[in-house]
Design brief:
With about 160 residues, the protein is of the alpha+beta class. It is built from 4 helices and 7 strands; from the N terminus they run βααβββαβαββ. The protein is globular. The model has no long low-confidence stretch (mean pLDDT about 95). It comes from Streptomyces cinnabarinus.
């Protein structure tokens, strides 16, 4: 079984389903940790409906969809913050496929997309409870830095210089 990764419109059926899975998981993890409950379904629908994909649309962004054995399996987004800096967004692999090498491939594909857009540095933010994500970024050469944004749920910020 092999992975393939390619840009895809953010409103494609595969991207939409993966976004829903991503948001459900990270939201449920947050609420279970902090409030002992899962995400309210109405809140989930409001947040999905309010999401704009403009930031992940060419020429200043991209949404990458990973497939495993041809089936949608994960996503990563990249957007330019300025001509030299790109931001990594929404790295996600569906739970049954974790540990099969998809996340590092997605991050590397996002780094290549950022370089193609002219960026020489990638930044990202994540939460403290997303320990797997923080370990992945560290393994891939990202260094924890000072905050580069004021995202309300961000607790850790990372950066990596992109080599050409």
């Amino acid at each position: 079984m092999t992975w393939t990764i390619a840009p895809e419109p953010a409103d494609s059926p595969a991207a939409t389903a993966l976004w829903r899975a991503y948001y459900t998981e990270v939201s449920d993890r947050y609420y279970l940790l902090h409030e002992g409950r899962r995400t309210d379904p109405a809140e989930l629908e409001r947040e999905i409906a309010a999401q704009s994909w403009d930031e992940l649309t060419p020429p200043k962004g991209a949404l990458l969809v990973a497939r495993f054995a041809g089936e949608p399996a994960g996503t990563a987004g990249v957007r330019l913050l300025d001509p030299r800096t790109a931001e990594l967004k929404r790295v996600f692999v569906q739970e049954p496929l974790r540990g099969k090498g998809g996340a590092p491939l997605l991050v590397r594909a996002a780094e290549e997309a950022a370089r193609t857009m002219g960026a020489g540095r990638m930044v990202l933010d994540t939460r403290g409870d997303l320990t797997e994500a923080r370990a992945l970024y560290a393994r891939l050469g990202y260094t924890e830095t000072e905050p580069h944004n004021d995202e309300p749920y961000a607790e850790h910020w990372f950066s990596k210089e992109l080599l050409n």
